Amino acid sequence: MRLLITGSSGLLGLNLALAATRSHHVIGVDRDTLKSAPFELCKADLLDPEATYQVVAQSKPDAVIHCAALADIDTCEAKPDLAYQLNAELPARLADVCARRKLRLIHISTDAVFDGQKDGVYSEGDLPNPKGVYAQTKLEGERSVLQVNPNAIVARVNFYGWSLSGKRSLAEFFINNLSAGKTVNGFTDVLFCPMLVNHLGEVLLDMLERSLRGLYHVVGPQAMSKYQFGVEVARKFGLKEGLISPQSVDKSSLTARRSHNLWLSTHKLSTDLDMTLPGFSTGLDEFYTQYQQGYPQKIRSYTQNIGG
Predict the structure, then answer these.
(1) Domains recognised in the chain with CATH numbers
(2) What is the reported pTM?
(3) What is the pLDDT of residues 221-230, one digit of tens each?
(4) What is the 3 state secondary structure string of the chain?
């Protein structure tokens, strides 16, 4: 299968592309970050509407996984127009192209579309209530995708892993700071379901192979607080968990509001895939093994621009 992956230098896009190369011909869309990679590279700025059509026409994919987004929450608050262009308009445009060409599409969304006020687990049937610009624009994007292309998959995700810059995931944040002996905050009142990005990539490919369609929660099967996550990472890497200060997110200096409860049910996904999703400890073990085997250095070798 010829698989087009947008945002191929991002945390998800790159790790997904590397996993997909084992069984597919991958074309990774990247503006200008990657200088080399073990998959075909397509340089393009998808903010240009014409570029979207040209990339699909020239690469002739069988399927598209759309990972590109403006994912920095505070940047979205500062630049709402750019957030709307990248997170709402671009997905709608890509969904339209895929529908016209009868291409399979997975659009990556976020667990942040929920306000976190529910006492319990969110299912795909629960009504979203986004709290900030990032979540609002991502919700508009997923709704536009399914309206234009009902056969598409919309995957709400939350993941961690190794990135090009070494600074994109929460796990990297804890490792970088604790390794330097710095004290960091861990939110005790933010519940989420982290999944190792490599496991997420494999699940997305499985969803594509099974020809699923519609909305899915594609997160880890275990919910935990950000504080607990940091402690687990510290223990696995032999770092001082005492440097992590338990704190409420409401008392933090973060600009954009964060949801307290992002516990998402994966029942629909595991049922439709007929599989048990990889648990948190399995993912953390793999994450640590990657560290031991030099995987972070390997992926950074694909770029000269390690700033993003």
Answers:
(1) 2-300 (3.40.50.720)
(2) 0.96
(3) 999 999 999 9
(4) CEEEEECCCCHHHHHHHHHHCCCCEEEEEECCCECCCCCEEEECCCCCHHHHHHHHHHHCCCEEEECCCCCCHHHHHHCHHHHHHHHHHHHHHHHHHHHHHCCEEEEEEEHHHCCCCCCCCECCCCCCCCCCHHHHHHHHHHHHHHHHCCCCEEEEECEECCCCCCCCCHHHHHHHHHHCCCCEEEECCCEECCEEHHHHHHHHHHHHHCCCCEEEEECCCCCEEHHHHHHHHHHHHCCCHHHEEEECHHHCCCCCCCCCECCECCHHHHHHHCCCCCCHHHHHHHHHHHHHCCHHHHHHCCECCCCC
